[in-house]
Amino acid sequence: MADAAGVSRGTVSRVLNGKANVSLSAETAVRRAVAETGYVVNRAARSLVTSRTGSIVMVLSEPQERLFEDPNFSVLMRVATNQLADRDMSLVLMIAGDDGGRDRVARYLRGGHADGALLISTHAGDPLLDEIERAGLPAVAQGAVLGRESVIPYAAADERGGARAMAEYLVDQGRRKIGMITGPLDTPGGSLRLEGFTSVLGRKAGKQMIVHGDYTQAGGESAMRKLLQNVPDLDAVFVASDLMAAGALQALHAAGRRVPEDVAVGGFDDSAIASATRPALTTVRQPLAKVAEETVRLLIALLEDEEVEPVVLPTELIIRDSA
């Protein structure tokens, strides 16, 4: 390859590894030689020299079925895969939704098969976090890991601010009996969205007005039925994800409640589901693609021994027909 390009082996190596200290003419010569010879990088050989695998593991800490039910995960995977491909790196998805899954991920990481980890939907107290720390593996989370915000860098939407905006909107619409269906409280989306909601409703957000869900459509439907039992005269509900909100709409329709005439419904995410429900869902848009981009950017920076800070991106209230 060096002979074909008319440059040194060191120059070829710097070009193929994306280093910056290469002249434009040398880089052009190497790229032309790659195209003409059909050269393909030997990843195994590169790994022996650089101690890098060229792979990043994405760890999803949810049951496998949620990967296919929740459209947010496909956005995160697509964006991360594309960004890493631009750097000639691969993404490996691993599910750590139970003890068996966590054990498999831990063995994989201990084996040195990945250069870093992208953590998705990580729950507070997850024992896998200790394994990652012991392995000394660079890791970045999509959404803060509760209790480890100062230890594990993260990129996230403004969960608290988005929930506050939705609660204020429902109050401004004249709704007085406003309930909430939360996500799991050991996740930032569960905890911080609840904080944003209660910061507006105060004492009105009593225990009867709040039911905990699990980010699934079935969970949202079940939680909505329970909320109607707790508060029969409910006139609005903020649901902490669009997928759960779709389930809540089903429960309301089954109970004979008109949306939004009897009960206004607000969601969170602005996923593809939000515009597909009937009525279309008023929701909080989180810039999920941008969050994914920032998560990968932070991890790449860690791999290059750079200092990083958490990134929190603004949300936007999207008004549709459900509220």
TrEMBL record:
> What Pfam families does UniProt report for this protein, alphabetically?
LacI, Peripla_BP_3
Instruction: Give TM regions.
Output: none
Q: Transcription regulation: is it a keyword of this entry?
A: yes
Boundaries of every HTH lacI-type domain copy: 1-50
- Domain HTH cro/C1-type: where? 1-25
Keyword terms, alphabetized = DNA-binding, Transcription, Transcription regulation
Q: Which GO terms describe its molecular function?
A: DNA binding
Domain of life the protein comes from:
Bacteria
Designated name of the protein: LacI family DNA-binding transcriptional regulator
Organism equals: Glycomyces rhizosphaerae
